[in-house]
Design goal:
Length: 365
């Protein structure tokens, strides 16, 4: 057992290494006082216990059907109104064509997330999923944030349960974690005032879990939130996971500052990003996977994150995602081949395991 001079850190270390849970005060203490080496060491132990030195990745492509959005999130660099320069909308044929043109013949997942288009209701998305599944029955579809789902269900006047049942029947396999942003109501009212609120986000994920649709969870951090807000966010996710066990992975999303209304507040440092990964790993004791979304943080930080509790690197994403490139992400052309990903993982001393959307092993490298 290590000895840390700070007694509080020593107590947290002992609790966590015994497999016990820490509370909000302890979470806050870690954010405020824990040294980097402590966090890396503790998060890595938990990760080894849960994932045994494996780092997961999958072969996926991202599709963003439109960036036309009715909402006005202050951190968003990507959304546009109709006819505004830079706006795009793809029809069903164009979406299907984009998948057909995929260069990776071993693709296992298509990830679909976009703006909240005012004219597109459940019927449009139901058909989209059905057609993709019809042409590519082996491709798993992870699609639509809770914010998109909330709007399409209300537009089509169906309840959450009915809407999710219909999408599942059409072929939806999983739901991504976007739209969670930060749950604190006061901050959320300022950052993204008009979209699905925190309770709605959580209720949609709860209902999906009840219907056996696995989902992910995110937290947008590094903007106006305090450490207390981050701990509150992690707490709400941990509580729901206790109830349902339906979350597959937690993905911290680093706020990127270019071309949006919060540009003047700057961005978090790499050290802060690594601390946040580690504390998330320590706090969310009921989540198996902690994912780094590498196109946003860059390859080098993604490699470092593997020593801070991260066990999953999002995909061999082809250069189709624009949410982050428009917000100033590290990698403006986010594509990594399988070989590059495997090398990155091996150089961190871990074993690369290709998975599908449901974390079933496809191949061990
Ligand atoms: O909800 C928007 C975020 C999210 C910015 O589940 C920004 O596997 C940083 O859902 N800086 C959408 N982030 C992305 C998303 C996602 C991504 C990767 C993996 C998964 C998964 C889900 O992007 C939005 C919002 O939180 N976002 N603007 C910005 N300026
Ligand atoms: Fe729309 Fe999503 Fe951008 Fe918010 S973050 S404005 S919901 S596209």
């Amino acid at each position: 057992m290590k000895n840390w001079r700070d007694q509080r850190l020593q107590r947290i270390w002992e609790l966590v290494t015994k497999g016990q849970r820490i509370g909000s005060d302890e979470g806050l203490y870690l954010y405020e006082h824990a040294p980097l080496g402590y966090l890396s060491n503790l998060a890595d132990r938990i990760n080894k216990r849960l994932n045994n030195g494996k780092v997961w990745f999958n072969r996926n492509m991202h599709i963003e059907p439109t960036n036309i959005c009715i909402y006005h999130c202050r951190f968003c660099s990507y959304s546009r109104k109709f006819n505004e320069p830079g706006a795009w909308e793809m029809n069903l044929d164009q979406i299907l064509e984009q998948i057909d043109q995929s260069r990776d013949t071993h693709l296992t997942e298509v990830h679909i997330v976009g703006g909240v288009h005012p004219q597109r209701g459940l019927e449009f998305y139901e058909e989209m999923i059905r057609e993709i599944k019809l042409r590519h029955p082996n491709l798993l579809i992870k699609a639509f944030t809770a914010v998109e789902l909330d709007f399409m269900f209300r537009k089509s006047r169906v309840g959450v349960k009915e809407g999710l049942i219909r999408l599942k029947k059409a072929g939806l396999d999983a739901i991504p974690g976007g739209g969670a942003e930060i749950f604190d109501e006061t901050l959320r009212a300022y950052l993204c005032p008009d979209k699905a609120d925190s309770d709605t986000w959580l209720a949609i994920h709860r209902e999906a879990h009840k219907l056996d649709i696995p989902t992910n969870a995110t937290m947008l951090y590094g903007h106006l939130e305090s450490y207390k807000h981050r701990v509150d966010h992690l707490n709400r996710l941990r509580d729901l996971q206790d109830e349902t066990s339906g979350f597959q992975a937690f993905i911290p999303l680093k706020y990127r500052k270019e071309n949006n209304l919060l540009s003047d507040i700057g961005e978090t440092s790499t050290v802060e990003d690594l601390r946040n990964y580690a504390i998330s790993r320590i706090y969310l004791d009921n989540f198996i996977h902690l994912k780094a979304y590498w196109p946003m943080i860059g390859r080098e930080v993604a490699a470092l994150s593997l020593s801070f509790g991260v066990d999953d690197l999002d995909g061999t994403i082809q250069d189709t995602t624009r949410i982050y490139s428009m917000a100033g992400a590290e990698d403006q052309n986010p594509t990594m081949t399988t070989d590059e990903l495997i090398t990155l993982i091996r150089q961190s001393g871990c074993q690369a395991v290709e998975r599908d959307t449901l974390y079933r092993t496809v191949k061990i490298y």
